[in-house]
Amino acid sequence: MRHPATVRLHGHLDRPAELTVGQLRDLPSHRVEVTFDCRTEGEQRHGYEGPTLWDVLCAAGPRVDLAARKPRLKFLLAVTGSDGHRAVVSWAEIDPDFGGQRILLATSMDGAPLDESGPQLVVPADHCGARYVSGVTAVWLGPVPGPEPAGAEAVGAEAVGAEGVASGRVPTGPPAAEPAGAARR
Ligand SMILES: Nc1nc2c(c(=O)[nH]1)N[C@H]1C(S)=C(S)[C@@H](COP(=O)(O)O)O[C@H]1N2
Ligand SMILES: [Mo]
């Protein structure tokens, strides 16, 4: 166990950062009571507190054009837990111009601080608990990996960054390393 745990914010950000749970508490905090279903454990109820993923990202300077709407939709967040469990949140889910969901990076669960284990992703609208990634170690922001569809320029071309789609190379996705032992729950 890391003391204290840190979360790496990386990818398409002007200010990538490595934050402790204590530093996450410097952002405006929200409290939420949730109920979700776990396939093996049944219904779970928890109270979480923490900043929104949106506020965490905005503080890190996302390299996403907020003046236009369509180009944002290709961005995603890959959220990784300490055991390698990983879930994707789409940019549009948390962007106030689209879903605007108050997804949190919780700094406490049921009143217990998460400084040692790391924050937990809280997705209040999810019925299943599987996206409640615990012990979050990294959040990567970037465009959906894979080949650019033909004719993409017509939809409002946007540089995909150093990866250079024009060169025919596939944009870099979230780091592929999958720590062993991601549990199936
Ligand atoms: N890191 C990590 N987070 C995880 C999982 C996991 O295997 N690894 N399982 C998920 C599943 S399937 C459920 S139902 C919830 C359970 O959340 P709880 O332990 O806080 O009640 O955690 C989620 N978060
Ligand atoms: Mo679960």
From TrEMBL:
Pfam families: Oxidored_molyb
Region (Disordered): 164-185
Annotated Oxidoreductase molybdopterin-binding domain residues: 6-116
Superkingdom assignment: Bacteria
Name of the protein in question: Oxidoreductase molybdopterin-binding domain-containing protein
Gene source species: Kitasatospora indigofera
